[in-house]
Amino acid sequence: MVDQKGGYSKIGFTQKDMYNKIAKLRRSKAFESDSQAAILYLESKAFTEANFYCRFNTDNDDRLANIFWRDYHSLFEYKCFGDVLVFDTTYKTNAYGKPLVLFVGVNNHSATCVFGAALLLDETFTSYKWALTKLMDSMGSKHPLSIMTDGDEAMRQAIDEVFPNCQHRVCGWHVARNACAHINGPKKSSAFRSFIFDHIDEDKFDECWNEMIKQHGLEDNVWVNMMYEKRHRWAEIYSKGHFFAGMRSTQRSESMNNYMKEYVCSREKLFDLFPQIDRALMRLRNNFFTDEYASNTKSPIILSHMKALEKHASSIYTYRIYCDITKEINDSIKYSHFAPWNEENEVEYVLTKYDSPYKKTVSVFYYRDRIDFQQVVEDGDWDSSKHNLPVLSCECKLLQNKGIPCCHMFYVMKVENITKIPESLIFKRWTKSATDDVRIHLQPDDDYSKSV
Predict the structure, then answer these.
(1) Which among 76, 17, 19, 67 has a CA at the least distance from the CA of 41?
(2) What residues contact 78, with CB distance under 8 A and at least 6 apart?
(3) What pLDDT digit, counting tens, does each position of 372-413 carry?
(4) CB–CB of 209/194 below 8 Å?
(5) Cα torsion through 292, 296, 302, 306, rounded to 10
(6) Phi first, then psi: what are they for 225, rounded to 5°?
(7) pLDDT tens digits for 366-382?
């Protein structure tokens, strides 16, 4: 080329540029070959595995862009526990730098389950929307009640587009970390973090916020003002009453990403990546069966002061949820109450910690009428004018947020001499029988998916 042009200065590129171009062409050919091999692997799974689902699209050069897949086990787990969805991206899991998105949730043993995965071309609104749409297509269009993400703006836009009625919460840990980066001084950032995790009354939020802004001189902080506009997505008070399975961060998703990195590395080719992810999921799902066996065979020692309630809890809840229940039962001993207020069909108990009278009170309402708590959670409507409330209702809203009765409710159960947890307070997704109905009705030939 130098001879043809008559000198190095007339070529227009360096020798290094030429080698880089050749290497890029070789990688492109390798990617195309690797993509074809990976798709053949997924096609073989579609032929041998019932209800396997995979979809992909291509870019303008007819090369693999985005790919989403999930197997029968993911469909089964989503049908049982798809009320809460958590996801973010993990990097360098393959030789091409394609972001891997894992859609995860929490099962009835409070353990992580995987609903599906996607390899994306990039982290844009278009790619995220495509992945979420395919997730819904693969699950028979069943939408989650709540979604937790790391706060990525492109993710938010995609969620608003695909799940307009879903409660979306931003990971509290990510918000707290960003607060340290954008607010100078530990006292200032600590004051901001209190709005992330503390239960500040909604009607006092603006008052407390303005006081914090004025006290720490944050009036001109652009990031703080921006976060105030987005407060409904990260402040604890605005998520109170919405079911998030007790989660306030994307820790499950990030832990799952780290777990996957034990099986895949940054140099992984696509053809090797998919089998490695399958192996990781196989081990994870084996843990579910181990938890199932433990819950059905363990007989915990009843030690609390409300043995009848604890024994009932041990018979219906999985072992890990039973442990959470016993903590609430034990914490109930910390409370006392004032003289209850009675009306025709309800009794109001005002509870306070016995060593701090009048300092902070919590109201618990005891009703004679009962409803199906599961249906109320799915409706997302706790307006007493439209529904009869559960047999017990508490201002702390742990029941709505986590799905288990709180210590305040257990205190009232003791006062009312209730020896079994009322059915209206039992969220089936935490029980030993959470998967029974799905096992019966979800057959391998259900038309939720086609081959690749």
Answers:
(1) 67
(2) 105, 115, 116, 139, 142
(3) 555 555 555 544 444 445 689 998 889 999 999 999 999 999
(4) no
(5) 80
(6) -65, -35
(7) 886 554 555 555 555 54
Q: Which two tokens stand for residue 99?
A: 């972001």
SS3 (DSSP) at 346: strand
Phi, psi of 313 (to 5 degrees): -60, -40
Domain residue spans in the chain?
15-289, 304-435
Contact 317, 431 (CB under 8 A): yes
Rounded Cα gap, residues 22 and 84, in angstroms:
47
245: which DSSP letter?
Answer: T
Q: What are phi and psi of 303, to 5 degrees?
A: -125, -15
Report pTM.
0.81
Tell me how far apart the alpha carbons of residues 218 and 387 are, in angstroms, rounded to a whole number. Answer: 43
DSSP string, 107-151: -TTS-EEEEEEEE-S-SSHHHHHHHHHHHHHHTTTPPPSEEEE--
Distance CA 257, CA 270 (A): 17
In this structure, what DSSP letter does residue 332 have?
A: G
Query: What's the CA gap between 135 and 133, in Å, rounded?
Result: 5
Distance CA 99, CA 93 (A): 8
Cβ(311)–Cβ(415) below 8 Å = no
| DSSP 8-state code for residue 229 | H
Question: What phi-psi label fits residue 389: left (phi over 0), alpha (psi between -120 and 50 degrees) or beta?
Answer: beta
Q: Where do we find the tokens 């009703």?
A: 367
Residue found by looking up tokens 């938010």 in the block: 156
**Per-position b or e across 127-152, b if 16+ CB within 10 A of its CB:** bbbbbbebbeebbeeeebbbbbbbbb
